Amino acid sequence: MAGLLSGLANLGLGNLADAKVFEEPKEEKKEAAAPIPPEQLEKDMVYDRVYECPMCSSKIASKVMKSGKAKLVKSDQDLRPVYEGIDPLKYDVIVCPKCGYSALTRYHAAGLTPTQRKLITENISKNVKMTPRTEEIYSYEIAMERYQMALACAIVKQGKASEKAYICLKTAWILRGWQETLDESKPETESQKAELLAAENEYLTNALEGFMTARTKENMPICGMDEYTVDYLIAVLAARFERYDVASRMIAGLLGSSANPRMKEKARDLKESIVLAMKKKNQ
Ligand SMILES: [Zn+2]
């Protein structure tokens, strides 16, 4: 039988005689799907925001994630937020390239007391040699340098336990994000991962100590977290390091409190995972 359009030859359209009615055009589709490199995607999600350094009054341009641009994929058990296409945690420290004063965005605007200014001048600004940075996006190496600067400044200015704990927690999250981006096919990845994981655990241990101190000495909320969130976080970190007595105490407190049902659910899940871990350990 002739094609559906065979009659059109008389009208000069004989080339369409064998045209397939339901065949989709292939070539164009392929071209449209050209992937955008991840670096470009990240570049599109950040912009330079100008801050004033509370130490030297310099105008600092710091990269910030555009709000509403990235999609939250999940939260880890210790509340680390994971986004699609970008790790916004890399952009949460403001560093002054002139005097070295660095802080988490949350604490940057809080300013400094005269004593703290003196301590920063003596112990940071006088000695620091900052590397000029012109990168359009921050690598994990750069992010680590920024977090370490923030921690150094928090220690030197004798900041609150909660501030230091929060920096340690977020630094650990940076190290975790870094591990997740490593190329598994490279032979050096295994040892690099082990090194980063060891550092992550060191930061988390310090975060745990700091939050436990802050819990008894500071007024809630701390680091933007209410008392239930802080207790939950302490429980998660304590469980990670097999300090089950601390974890169990926090969980019992949470379950008997007026924390919201979602938080209680998380506490129950954690309790279950601790029971399993203890059983495994005793086997
Ligand atoms: Zn400065």
Rounded to the nearest angstrom, the radius of gyration is 27 Å
Number of helices: 10
Percent of sequence in beta strands: 5-15%
Kindly report the spatial arrangement of strands forming the biggest sheet.
1-2
Classify the helix fraction into a percent range. Answer: 40-55%
Total number of beta strands: 6
Give the low-confidence spans: none
Q: What is the terminal-to-terminal distance?
A: 76 Å
Largest sheet: 2 strands, antiparallel
The 3D shape can be described as extended
SSE arrangement, N to C: HHEEEEEEHHHHHHHH
How would you state the average pLDDT, rounded? 92
Bound molecule types: zinc ion
Q: What features would you describe in this structure?
A:
- The protein contains ten helices and six strands.
- 31% of the residues are buried.
- The chain has helices spanning 27-32, 38-45, 105-108, 114-125, 140-156, 161-181, 189-217, 227-240, 244-255, 261-282; strands at residues 46-52, 59-65, 72-75, 81-83, 93-95, 102-104.
- It starts with 26 loop residues before the first helix and ends with a helix.
- Helix content is 51%, strand content 10%.
- The chain is mainly alpha-helical and 283 residues long.
- Helix 7 (189-217) crosses helix 8.
- The longest helix is centred in the C-terminal third of the chain and has 29 residues, at 189-217.
- The chain has a two-stranded antiparallel ribbon.
- Zinc ion (ZN) binds next to loops.
- Zinc ion binds at residues 53, 55-56, 58, 96, 98-99, 101.
